[in-house]
């Protein structure tokens, strides 16, 4: 987004594939936010979450084991392995059924596109909120390579090599790697004396291209090994009895938001990703008199295997309950797409030109989710429950047993049970655990088509539709040993098989006024569909499945490149309504240890986006700005979960805001490029990124309200005009904003809260890129 070349007076053309064909962004009749690959390298970003502030009405959180994406206030939390996202993930034309595949593709990127609003017509199911479309760099025309080295003062460093090879006039290849480490992590665990959330990644990606006059074939493959210490929650509010108990196990335990936590489970997260895809483009110009016609086939296979995933389910140093995998958890997908895209200047002798795409899609996936919830220590469990009850907001602080305050009995009661273990174990059972599994198979088929038909010279009719069918099968089991898990988590043994079949219809209608080649105004009506599914942690046989959600949106927008190409403007207004909105929650009748997806009644989001990119008349000065407004709220949600401290189990959230939905997002980034001796350039950019307050849990408990934040970032970039080398020095979060992306109730301990911190305080970094 910075102006890297002072002599340039015109903004470069941005080509996007938002409509499954390469187009100038000014011709695309939908709201699209873009980030180019250079900003990935220059901003000091270490993941996609660091880029969310540059694009209005977008929220991103991503890890090796899950991804959370929200657009215009709508999205789906990855709290359940059975989830399917509301924002589709597409990389180089391939749809991925799990958002965390995106973590494989952070390096060697050409551009990132966020397509806002329902995108069901062209991109299919699970795109009710939008699509995250990533385009990686393809092999170029010369032999050479790129060496990239990144380091930050917060312990992160990475080496990202790229090798480009040209074999002959037709064959070329590009091999890229991302080898990153984090020696400090986001948190320090005082109980285990180790760093937490310290992601390490080893990734290799290969693209091989065959290019001739008649056919282009692009073959890709990737492998990624990602791992981390996975205790990412910290207690931020703790009752006195609970804090006293915690300090019996860790004297440094605390209940405040900082960069420390305390958890006794040595939780690990480890995921392996692999995949391959082939894209074939074949021109058929002139077939049946069509001026330009291309055939495209995309075949893809991908898998992720979560090999380790542990959760300290009580988020404390008390050895109470843990959730871990029974066996590695695999997800696999196989897909095939065929489509024709074309342009013709004369349609049956009536009207003017037509642009169209028509095709078919097939997708299959399998998932095996398996968990064991285990009580680690029976005495500690009883101590925990005693401390939780005596410290609950509605508890009697003076409650006594044999003249002793209950708050002081928690730890001794637990120790007494430990001493009596040899006697109690034969009676109660030695292993207090519940084993839960879900085996799921999904099959989807669809046909789709869309056209822009210029009925007049500058007026086009937009029409499209997608019809699809999906079939899911699920096999659930839940088996308990001992008495405690059924007692505290409402578990019951079951072995259940379910299947569901759904039909998708996602139409699109609109008008487009292409006043100039680089300016258009449009009005569209679209519908999107997100499939129903199964909950992956079925402690009992209730709430095993949830229904599909549907979105309907009206959007009015305009785009233009003005002032001899030095100014780019984009604006959109929208009104989106969701029916049967899927929400992630801890349902009181589904087991307190397991989040499930349920359907809210209905929701609505109204607002708009504005983006400005201007090369100002002062030589070397540029400005990028974006703003998003989204008033996202429940129209009706009478049985929403109540805060854990409430005496009621449900509440009415009608007319209340959605969680994870800031009303305002904005970015203002002025930059100045100065020519230096020896044909060098220096660019200074100052970034102000604003995000208004938002709740970060579905129950809208006041404790879960994240205040508004204003991040101030800066970067200084040195390099040669020819691009031989670039050195980027970046400073992020100079204002030291404290940001959390999730706050939850501590399980079975009303009035205690845990949070996942999203910021790392102030962070300084350097990134050196050398081309050879």
From TrEMBL:
It is a multi-pass membrane protein. It is found in: Cell outer membrane. Residues 275-734 form the TonB-dependent receptor-like beta-barrel domain. PROSITE patterns: TONB_DEPENDENT_REC_3 (PS52016). Keywords: Cell outer membrane, Ion transport, Iron, Iron transport, Membrane, TonB box, Transmembrane, Transmembrane beta strand, Transport. GO terms for biological process: iron ion transport. Its main location: membrane. Residues 26-131 form the TonB-dependent receptor plug domain. The keyword Iron applies. It holds the Pfam family TonB_dep_Rec_b-barrel. One of its GO terms (cellular component) is cell outer membrane. Belongs to the TonB-dependent receptor family. This is TonB-dependent receptor. It comes from Hydrocarboniphaga effusa AP103.
């Amino acid at each position: 987004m910075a102006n890297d070349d002072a002599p340039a007076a015109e903004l470069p053309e941005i080509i996007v594939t938002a409509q499954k064909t390469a187009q100038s962004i000014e011709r695309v009749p939908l709201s699209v936010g873009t980030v180019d690959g250079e900003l990935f390298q220059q901003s000091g970003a270490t993941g996609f979450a660091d880029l969310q502030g540059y694009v209005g009405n977008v929220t991103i959180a991503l890890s090796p084991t899950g991804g959370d994406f929200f657009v215009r206030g709508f999205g789906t939390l990855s709290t359940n392995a059975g989830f399917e996202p509301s924002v589709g993930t597409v990389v180089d034309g391939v749809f991925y059924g799990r958002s965390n595949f995106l973590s494989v593709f952070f390096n060697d990127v050409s551009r990132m596109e966020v397509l806002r609003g329902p995108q069901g017509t062209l991109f299919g199911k699970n795109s009710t909120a939008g699509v995250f479309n990533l385009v990686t760099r393809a092999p170029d025309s010369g032999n050479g390579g790129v060496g990239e080295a990144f380091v930050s003062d917060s312990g992160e460093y990475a080496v990202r090599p790229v090798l480009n090879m040209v074999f002959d006039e037709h064959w070329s290849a590009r091999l890229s790697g991302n080898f990153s480490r984090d020696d400090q992590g986001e948190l320090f665990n005082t109980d285990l004396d180790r760093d937490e959330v310290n992601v390490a990644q080893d990734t290799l990606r290969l693209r091989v291209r065959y290019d001739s006059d008649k056919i282009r074939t692009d073959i890709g493959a990737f492998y990624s090994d990602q791992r981390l210490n996975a205790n990412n929650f910290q207690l931020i509010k703790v009752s006195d009895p609970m804090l006293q108990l915690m300090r019996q196990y860790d004297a440094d335990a605390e209940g405040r938001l900082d960069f420390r936590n305390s958890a006794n489970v040595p939780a690990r997260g480890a995921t392996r990703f692999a995949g391959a895809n082939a894209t074939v483009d074949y021109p058929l110009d002139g077939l049946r008199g069509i001026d330009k016609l291309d055939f495209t086939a995309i075949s893809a296979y991908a898998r992720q295997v979560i090999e380790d995933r542990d959760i300290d389910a009580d988020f404390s140093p008390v050895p109470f309950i843990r959730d871990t995998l029974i066996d590695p958890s695999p997800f696999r997908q196989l897909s095939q797409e065929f489509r024709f895209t074309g342009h013709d200047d004369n349609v049956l002798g009536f009207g003017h030109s037509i642009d169209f795409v028509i095709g078919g899609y097939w997708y299959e996936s399998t998932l095996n989710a398996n968990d064991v919830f285990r009580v680690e220590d029976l005495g500690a469990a009883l101590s925990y429950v005693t401390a939780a009850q005596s410290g609950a907001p509605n508890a009697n602080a003076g409650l006594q047993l044999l003249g002793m305050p209950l708050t002081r009995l928690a730890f001794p009661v637990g120790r007494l049970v430990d001493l009596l273990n040899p006697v109690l174990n034969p009676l109660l059972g030695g292993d207090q655990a519940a084993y839960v599994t879900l085996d799921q198979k999904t099959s989807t088929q669809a046909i789709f088509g869309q056209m822009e038909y210029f009925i007049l010279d500058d007026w086009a009719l937009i029409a499209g539709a997608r019809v699809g069918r999906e079939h899911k099968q699920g096999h659930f089991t839940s088996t308990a040993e001992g008495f405690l898990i059924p007692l505290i988590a409402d578990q019951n043994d079951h072995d259940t098989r379910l299947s569901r079949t759904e039909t998708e219809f996602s139409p699109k209608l609109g008008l487009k006024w292409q006043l100039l080649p680089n300016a258009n105004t449009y009005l569209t009506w679209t519908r999107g569909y997100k499939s129903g599914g199964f909950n992956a942690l079925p402690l009992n046989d209730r709430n095993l499945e949830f229904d599909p959600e549907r979105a309907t949106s009206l959007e009015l927008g305009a785009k233009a490149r003005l002032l001899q190409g030095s100014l780019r403007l984009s604006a959109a207004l929208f009104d989106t309504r969701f029916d049967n909105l899927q929400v992630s929650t801890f349902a009181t009748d589904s087991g307190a240890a397991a989040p499930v997806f349920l359907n809210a009644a209905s929701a609505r989001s109204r607002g708009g986006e504005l983006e400005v990119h201007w090369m100002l008349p002062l030589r070397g000065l540029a400005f990028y700005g974006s703003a998003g407004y989204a008033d996202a709220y429940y129209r009706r949600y009478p049985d929403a979960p109540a805060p854990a401290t409430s005496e009621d189990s449900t509440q009415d959230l009608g007319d209340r805001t959605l969680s994870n939905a800031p009303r305002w997002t904005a970015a203002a980034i002025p930059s100045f490029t100065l020519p230096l001796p020896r044909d060098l350039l220096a660019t200074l950019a100052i970034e102000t990124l604003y995000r208004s307050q938002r709740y970060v849990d579905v129950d809208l408990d006041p404790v879960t309200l994240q205040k508004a934040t204003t991040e101030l970032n800066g970067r200084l970039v040195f390099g040669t005009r020819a691009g031989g080398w670039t050195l980027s020095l970046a400073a992020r979060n100079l204002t030291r904003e404290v940001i959390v992306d999730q706050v939850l109730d501590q399980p079975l301990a009303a009035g205690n809260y845990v949070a996942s911190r999203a910021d790392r305080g102030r962070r300084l970094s350097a990134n050196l890129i050398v081309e050879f």
